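Hi F.,

I've been meaning to write this up properly since the lab meeting, where we talked about keeping a consistent format for the predictions we share between groups. The idea is simple: the sequence comes first, exactly as it goes in, then the structure tokens exactly as they come out, then a line or two of notes. No screenshots and no reformatting. I'm using this chain as the first example so we have something concrete to point to.
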Amino acid sequence: MWRAPPDMKFQELLVTDGSKVAGILGSIVKAIESDALELNVEEVSLCFNGVCRLDIELLTGSEAIEVEVSGAPWLSEMELSLEDLMVEISLKPSSSPRRGVKLSAIYESLPELILKLDSSMLRALSKRTTLDGVEYIALYMDRGSVAVLEGDVHKVTIPSIEALGIVHTHPEGACGFSEVDVRSTAYALSNLTLFEAVTTPSCAFYIARIGFLDEKDFETLLNNTGGITTPARLPSIKIERLTYST
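Output, unedited:
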């Protein structure tokens, strides 16, 4: 864990329960996407170390993970190394009948898993935002760690770091995306970020892509006025609100 000197803005690089899940599942998803021209997320399925269901404890407790991928004929065998977790992942395409966890379920569950697992950290950051207006951003990376950076009062700028997921803080009562937030999210998802989220002390609100971002969905986000504060579903986008348990 690295912290900034006292005269600098707050910066921290750390491994959390959420960053482990983001690194493992996010890296697997991005690897499957890498050579796909088209992607039917209902046709692709995965098994992890012979277990054909999503077992988070199994995944985060393993130093070596073998992923059997069915329904992805474009995929070649590949090895992934998550340096901050010291985890090795082997992806092996399979021609066997599709079984296991649908890829769509990975896209669907990933944001909520991360937000719940890291709720203590994210809520603490958003409580600071509620007190003084300074926003923070958490960048979940494919190496298995999360970079937490301090922004400015009522705004935070996303640095040029490739991230699997991006979460930034809002003060209590602002659990939703502003018009500017929606626009930046549209571009992030089109550049293959998996999700963006806003967090307050009591809830989180996220926009996630399910498979590749559809062009019409991209335009819908870009043409949004007034922001988004209610859950919705588009062909390639899930918009959801999550209330933190107390």
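Notes:
Residues 17-33 form the longest helix (17 residues).
Residues 19-101 form one domain.

If this format works for you, I'll send the rest the same way.

G.
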